Amino acid sequence: QSALTQPASVSGSPGQSITISCTGTSSDVGGYNYLSWYQQHPGTAPKLLIFEVYNRPSGVSNRFSGSKSGNTASLTISGLQAEDEADYYCFSYRNDTTRVFGGGTKLTVL
Amino acid sequence: EVQLVESGGGLVQPGGSLRLSCAPSGFTFSTYWMTWVRQAPGKGLEWVANINQDGSEKYYMDSVKGRFTISRDNAQNSLYLQMSSLRVEDSALYYCARDGVPAAFDSWGQGTLLTVSS
């Protein structure tokens, strides 16, 4: 099962905004609004940032926002902070019985 | 507080078997879908399997179908992953996660490490 396509790395300076893309097909990203994003710092478990494309769980900063257009979803982080340096993963339904993660994106805060 | 604690990882030879467990607390386990996710060292996250509230629906990634079995015991508050015919490429940190919001994982354990090696 092939992973959703994410850029391997992105970078930005403190205060800037960055966007991470997650590209799939009409069988996954484009076919469902069940798209979520996770942040993972080294040595820790992933943390849910966004679910159902653009919804934030309680406690997640509003600097994190999600969107989707066609077969590509995006995570935008505004007002970049040093603590945002981490790996980010998208996740989607693929058909009704399969799920799939993106390959992951390493965010570097310069 | 929601907690998920995995156990059962270890070193296994190729072709061997092992059962992972996940002990949930702080929520009504029987009302949630649950999922196993794995992460090989230095690699990305990989969805492995999930199970519905009463265990009647189970889904797997292609590479583990026929080798892994997800199950749960709601009376004992436990989630399991029975793994057989293990391969080197199954080596990973295995997380259990709660499907707490629509189609997403709002709680994760800290993982249990499986190493498949001769």
Polypeptide structure, described:
The complex is a heterodimer of chains A (110) and B (118). Chain A is 0% helix and 45% strand. With 110 residues, chain A is an all-beta fold. In chain A, strands 1, 3, 4, 7, 8 and 9 form a six-stranded mixed beta sheet that branches. A three-stranded antiparallel beta sheet of chain A has the order 2-6-5, with no helix packed on it. Chain B is 0% helix and 49% strand. In chain B, the strands form two sheets. In chain B, strands 2, 4, 5, 6, 9, 10 and 11 form a seven-stranded mixed beta sheet that branches. The model of chain B has no long low-confidence stretch (mean pLDDT 97). The A-B interface holds A 1, 3, 32, 34, 36, 38, 40, 45-48, 51-52, 55, 57, 87, 89, 91, 93, 97-104 and B 35, 37, 44-47, 50, 59, 61-63, 95, 101-106, 108-111.
Concise account of the structure shown:
With 110 residues, chain A is mainly beta.
What fraction, in percent, of the residue positions of chain A are helical?
under 10%
Mean pLDDT of chain A: 96
**Beta-strand content estimate of chain B:** over 45%
What global shape of chain A is seen? globular
Brief descriptors of the model:
heterodimer; A: 110 residues; mainly beta; six-stranded mixed beta sheet; three-stranded antiparallel beta sheet; 0% helix; B: 118 residues; seven-stranded mixed beta sheet; four-stranded antiparallel beta sheet; 11 strands; globular
